[in-house]
Amino acid sequence: MATKLPHVPVVIVGMGWTGGIVAAELTKAGIKVVGLERGKERSTADYYMGHDELRYAQRYEMMQDLSKDTVTIRHNLKERALPYRTHGSFLLGDGLGGAGSHWNGQSFRFLPYDFEIRSKTIERYGEKKIPEGMTIQDWGITYDELEPYFDKYEKMAGISGEQEQNPMVGKRSNPFPTGPMKTTPSMKMFMEASKKLGYHPYIYPSANLSEMYTNPDGIQRAACQYCAFCERFGCEYGAKADPVVTVIPVALKTGNLEIRTQSTVTRVLHDGKKATGVLYVNNITGEEFEQPADIVMLGGFVFTNVRLLLNSKLGKPYDPNTGTGVIGKNYAYQLSGGAGGTVGFFDDKEFSNFMGAGALGAEVDDFNGDNFDHSNLNFIHGAGIRIAQAGERPIANNTVPKGTPSWGKEFKQQSIKYANRVLKVSMQGSSMPFRHHFLDLDPTYKDQFGLPLLRMTFDFEEQDREQVKFIAQKTAEIMKEMGPTTMQTTTELKPYDVTVYQSTHNTGGVIMGSDPSTSAVNNYLQMWDAENVFVVGASAFAHNSGYNPTATVGALAYRTAEGILKYIKQGGGSLV
Fold first, then answer.
1. What is the pLDDT of residues 395-420, one digit of tens each?
2. Which residues form the Glucose-methanol-choline oxidoreductase N-terminal domain (predicted)?
3. Do 269 and 297 contact (CB within 8 A), yes or no?
4. Fewest CB within 10 A of the end CB: N or C in the chain?
């Protein structure tokens, strides 16, 4: 029997970027909030002298324990899904701050095209351009409508970037709060080569601060030290924007936020029309609690949000056979992990590849979104082409030319020779949703509490293979212009392999839109089927772009916070 706790105005499930942003905005307005986080407490002090590649990068210290909770994965409807038991294709974070603590810090805005993708594709190419089974749809909001929220997110996080407007990306109302990161020799080579080819390179927008910064909430943070321990690590300097050092302290300072860590929410409680609260388990004691609330906000990772709704029987589950239903619809991944990229080996040059930062790099977006003509191409959207200097750590850094043995004397010799003589021009490509790509509950496997695991049905499509072949040619052109001794380009996209790390950018499942029959939430991320439930995060994306999702997640979270305050002020009801 669950212990019923005192009623609160708002309960937030998951205290990462979305939970932290919404909590900060609500508590500053005087609203009492309880934040439930299934992981442990975290602070900057936990990362002091934490440059341990084995512990964090190889043994996944900050990631979810897959023996207790995971997803099951299959390629198609005919296969039996099996549990994801070893971190490979993507990394599931755990703990206060969520993925916002172990991310790299790359902070791109999605393109104007992304938010109106179906309308703009049909307008330019006709409806026949969209292949059968591809379920792209407009998001119910435009870039211009979301732009002020992007601006607010960037000022909070202190995003560093070039002050001049790049013609390939959405127009900005204000410059970045801080200047761009340093330009390394390899970045300079990439940018010069790209310009010679007529492209428009720019330095990454970065959540690794380029300079000392104080944000509008009075949070002061130090500049990046370029130590190369960003991805999979917390930042000991506080230079990387992280909910734990930005929005969560602001919320706690108001006295209106109570955070309960080690609290796993198992169900959203509801009466069929509105939520009444949540049910959660204390991971340490095993005790079960009911937390009543006027408003429930789900701010977990994509899989967490979708699974909670399905296990709570809240919203209509998606059915791939009929194409009806919305919870679990339009799951999308991303194209990266080596496919479409080009590796260059430089016998006559040496680079300081061991130095870097998670968001240190340069990007070309001439082949992203609809920035180029797709009339004679067998795919839509595209990819960002980039060079990164995140820092090559010693255990994982052993890129060698093809034909080199995978172990032994020659492998060691080549690893040492090319440790600082290899550059990679890579792609990060969009992922379009298809009718048979979706999330639902697994009929066989359950978690530590006896609840069904979430099941993912996904594989790469012809759309993806065509995109990789096209972008691979462009990465090869840029690398050739950079002058390597030898180079290798990967033009073939193989079937989705869950064992190889590719991207943690999973999206969809609780998608936004303007039609309740095809979307789960409106443009404030308020559920159509339960007006006092807001589902925030990349689960709202109706497809995945050629960018990292965090900036768009952050912008939508600020809009949701505004929506919740409006909902409270007007005494309930739909916000659109």
1. 888 899 999 999 999 999 999 999 89
2. 142-332
3. no
4. N
What does the pLDDT look like over 40-53, one tens digit per residue?
Answer: 999 888 888 778 99
* Neighbouring residues of 548: CB distance < 8 A, sequence distance ≥ 6: 104, 106, 107, 108, 428, 505
Give the domain CATH number at 58: 3.50.50.60
575 assigned to some structural domain: no
Please, are residues 490 and 338 in contact by the beta-carbon 8 Å criterion?
Answer: yes
Beta bridge partners of 438: 457
Q: CA dist 530 to 23, 274, 527, Å?
A: 20, 5, 5
- CA distance to 56, 62, 415, per residue, from 59 (Å): 6, 9, 22
Residue 183's φ and ψ, nearest 5 degrees, are -100, 115
Query: Averaged over 554-561, what is the pLDDT?
Result: 98
In Å, how far are 101, 264, 327, 439, 517 from 316, measured between CA atoms?
33, 23, 6, 13, 10
* Count of domains forming the chain: 1
Strand ranges in 405-451 using DSSP code E only, listed in sequence order: 422-429, 438-446
CB 226 within 8 A of CB 183: no
Catalytic option among 102, 381, 437, 505: 505
- Tell whether 229 is covered by a domain: yes
543 included as an active-site residue: no
Cα separation, 332 vs 251, whole angstroms: 32
Q: Copy the structure tokens of residue 421.
A: 């003589």
How many other CB atoms sit within 10 Å of the CB of residue 120? 18
**Among 494, 461, 504, 453, residue whose Cα is nearest residue 82:** 453
Instruction: Dump strand ranges (E) for 204-262.
Output: 213-214, 220-221, 257-260
CA dihedral 351, 354, 357, 358 (to 10 degrees): 110
The torsion angles phi and psi of 289, rounded to 5 degrees, stand at -130, 145
The CB density around residue 178, as the number of other CB atoms within 10 Å, is 20
Q: How many residues would you count in the chain?
A: 576
> CA 359, CA 59: separation in Å to the nearest integer?
22
Instruction: Return the structure tokens found at 119.
Output: 């309308």
- Of 232, 236, 303, nearest to 509 by C-alpha is 303
- Domain holding 306, by residue range, is 3-42+52-570
385 sits in which H/E element: strand 383-388
pLDDT at 393: 84
Task: Let me know if residue 474 belongs to a domain.
Answer: yes
* Predicted TM-score (pTM) of this structure: 0.97
Residue corresponding to tokens 């959540």: 207
Within-domain flag for 47: no
User: For the chain, what is the mean pLDDT?
Assistant: 96
69-84 pLDDT, tens per residue? 999 999 999 999 999 9
CA 423 to chain centre: 25
* Residue 381 CA from chain centroid, whole number: 18
> Tens digits of per-residue pLDDT, 9-68?
999 999 999 999 999 999 999 999 999 999 999 988 888 877 899 999 999 999 999 999
